[in-house]
Amino acid sequence: MENTNQQSLTVESSGAKKRVDAFLSAGMQEISRSQWKILIEQQFVRVNGKPCKPNTRLKTGDEIVWSVPERAPLAAVPEDIPLKILFEDDSVLVLNKPPGLVVHPAVGNSSGTLLHGLLFYNPVFQTLERAGIVHRLDKDTSGVMVVAKSEQAVQELRRQFKARETDKEYVALVWGEPPKNGRIETLLGRHPVHRKKQAVLKEDGREAITAFQCLEQFEQCAWMQVKIETGRTHQIRVHMAHLKHPIVGDTVYGRVRKGRLPAEPERQMLHAAKLSFCHPVSGKRLSFEAPLFEDMALLLEKLRNG
Question: pTM for the whole thing?
Answer without folding.
Answer: 0.77
